[in-house]
């Protein structure tokens, strides 16, 4: 299984900051699940940024990097080979063809 940044079990950060619940799923199962301040994905129409209280959306994704700003890490990146994104309330689901962590710089 992959090594992932840890995430709080609550949906609100200690300072009262609202977070989104993110799940990155590949054909082999859940690659990563946790909370994030923001998520950026490579949609076929351009880069799409997701913050808490985002409008519901479904989008096709192209190969590229998913950027996660988690409460305990400045930014974590996952390389995906394409897929789909679904946002509903503060739940973000990335259905990826494949996924791999991008090493920190």
From TrEMBL:
Ranges where the ATP synthase F1 complex delta/epsilon subunit N-terminal domain occurs: 21-99
Leader sequence segment: none
UniProt keyword list: ATP synthesis, Cell membrane, CF(1), Hydrogen ion transport, Ion transport, Membrane, Transport
Keyword presence, Cell membrane: yes
Chain segments annotated as transmembrane: none
InterPro entries cross-referenced by the UniProt entry: ATP_synth_F1_dsu/esu, ATP_synth_F1_dsu/esu_N, ATPsynth_dsu/esu_N
The keyword Membrane belongs to this UniProt entry's keyword annotation: yes
Cellular location(s): Cell membrane
Membrane association type: Peripheral membrane protein
GO molecular function ontology, one term from the record: proton-transporting ATP synthase activity, rotational mechanism
CDD domains: F1-ATPase_delta
Family statement: Belongs to the ATPase epsilon chain family.
Subunit architecture: F-type ATPases have 2 components, CF(1) - the catalytic core - and CF(0) - the membrane proton channel. CF(1) has five subunits: alpha(3), beta(3), gamma(1), delta(1), epsilon(1). CF(0) has three main subunits: a, b and c.
Biological function: Produces ATP from ADP in the presence of a proton gradient across the membrane.
Protein name as annotated: ATP synthase epsilon chain
Record organism: Cellulosimicrobium protaetiae
């Amino acid at each position: 299984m992959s090594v992932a940044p840890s995430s709080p079990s609550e949906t609100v950060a200690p300072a009262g900051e609202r977070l989104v619940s993110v799940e990155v799923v590949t054909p082999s199962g859940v690659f990563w699940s946790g909370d994030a301040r923001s998520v950026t994905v490579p949609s076929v129409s351009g880069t799409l940024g997701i913050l808490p209280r985002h409008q519901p959306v479904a989008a096709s994704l192209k190969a590229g990097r998913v950027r996660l700003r988690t409460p305990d890490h400045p930014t974590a990146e996952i390389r995906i080979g394409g897929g789909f994104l679904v946002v509903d309330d503060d739940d973000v689901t990335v259905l990826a063809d494949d996924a791999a962590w991008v090493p920190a710089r």
